[in-house]
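Subgroup meeting minutes
Present: P.N., E.W., G.H.
Scribe: E.W.

1. P.N. recapped why we're keeping a running log of single-chain structure predictions: easier to compare across weeks, and new members can see raw inputs and outputs side by side.
2. G.H. added today's entry (443 aa).
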Amino acid sequence: MRSCLSLAFAVVFCAVPVWADERSAAREAAAKAFIEAMQKGEFEKATKDFDATMKKVSGADKLEEFWKEFTGQVGALKKTGTFRTGKKGKYDLVFIPCEFEKHKFDLRLAFDPDGKITGFGLELPHGNHAFKPPPYARPESFSEREVTVGEGEWKLPGTLTLPKGEGPFPAAVLVHGSGPQDRDETIGPNKTFRDLAWGLASRGIAVLRYEKRTRAHAEQLSKMVDKITIKEEVVDDAVAAVTLLRKTEKIDPRKIFVIGHSLGALMAPRIAELEPALAGIVMMAGNQRALEDVLLEQVTYIFSLEKELTAGQKKTLEDLKKQIARVRDPKLAPDTPRKELPLRQPAAYWIALKAYDQSATAKRLKQPILVLQGERDYQVTMEDFAGWKKVLADKKNARLKSYPNLNHLFATGKGKATPKDYEKAGHVDVEVIDDIAAWIKGR
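Output recorded in log:
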């Protein structure tokens, strides 16, 4: 799940210095002006280089609201580090390391070819960490190739990890958690989906992972910000990925699975309902309770890590409770402003979620279900796991397992879980990889 504070699932781009010096200097100057204006509270000035869409969806008033809420949680911005530049398609990127009183984040700005700011976000710093394969991966036992998931305006770049050999192989589609994720589900120095792909492929299971639509098509989606639902964010592309696997050489079309993480796990029963030929679903840290309830618990927990709540944190909780009350209202109207709702998601998003009952959907599925949960997870907790146990108690082809030392990313840790866990490099635990592989091969 995503919270206002943890930003654990913020967008991550690969930074590659490729610009001409003059252009790079212009972008960096604009980025510097933006962060300085934000720091001084000059929000009208901060928006001067926004493109038309950004001015509409993130104008000075909304920018001020966001910044005050964010700094109310993480403290004032103390200093910035050395800027980095990068490229994604036609967009130039500038990354600004920002040190707040309580946390460090990278501010990412995207510029269009005309030098206008077309998007920004805050993400956990991942720097230039080189990915070290988990010890259970055997790269010599598989190959990877680029694929395209879906077609038309929403097509997505992806990676198929295929075991070496004749096949046909069982296969799995990986479905992301909240936020504009990359295909590896990169969070700080961690790459949860690459771990899963390489670990499972080393055990004879093909894996398809892809860029999430909210990352690959952020500009297009910004134009329909008041209409997007969970269908466009998650479901449609997962179904397209299943369709692609079914037509792929060396894949056994009778043994295709969906492995959903967090928000992806929440939606896995819906995907299985739409794809009855699926061989089964794996739900990793999927909430059984309503998303808004989990969100409130998550933010409350994070704030509880402090000795005393700040005025900003108290206001954030008060505002969040009011926003959640709007979501719970049976009369929630489609035209309710996003600022009055949690996570600034549109009313259409929350109305669609309220219409979806993950528990009832999972209960009536004929396909096998594997539910996995880290006991150190503060985002989706053991209360949700207990809920799934109750919901699936009479389902003979459902298996549930929890892991005492694992967090939301299914990485090992000790002590009280905090957002700082995500800043430490780790891997999906080998026991999780082995359990998923054995379960899939047993279907």
